[in-house]
């Protein structure tokens, strides 16, 4: 049995009832820098996205899961993207939506569950992520899970007219 359950959170598939939560996340300008978003999303587009979220990762090449507490409160999302079957790798992104929910271990447990799922059930060889310079919480989170910094992309992201460097981190399943 595939378990995506931890001690304080569990990971679950997107549901139609997540429309408002996803809408709030995707339209929160304070996190657009992390998601490389530049424009707002309509409820209509998000509803269409949710209607197709059931597609298999092998077809969609991505997977988005909701980070939920055992009180069934959605606190964030964790994504696999650029899923590459041939090379057995995928990118990882994670977000805990509300600042007051951060530093409670939700992201730590969610990332651990996802890593185990990727290496055990998807038979991936490696995972990677990109983290903007200065995002110390994400650097610490991924480093604590064994991700290694393997490169620096200079002036990679333009945020309000200022260019920021971005680190590339990688975790190889040995």
Automatic annotation (TrEMBL):
Gene3D superfamilies: 3.40.630.30
Top-level taxon of origin: Bacteria
Transmembrane segment boundaries: none
Domain N-acetyltransferase: 9-174
Record's keyword annotation contains Hydrolase: no
Lineage: Bacteria, Pseudomonadati, Bacteroidota, Flavobacteriia, Flavobacteriales
UniProt GO MF annotations: acyltransferase activity, transferring groups other than amino-acyl groups
Record's protein name: GNAT family N-acetyltransferase
Keywords of the record: Transferase
UniProt-listed PROSITE patterns: GNAT
Annotated InterPro entries: Acyl_CoA_acyltransferase, GNAT_dom
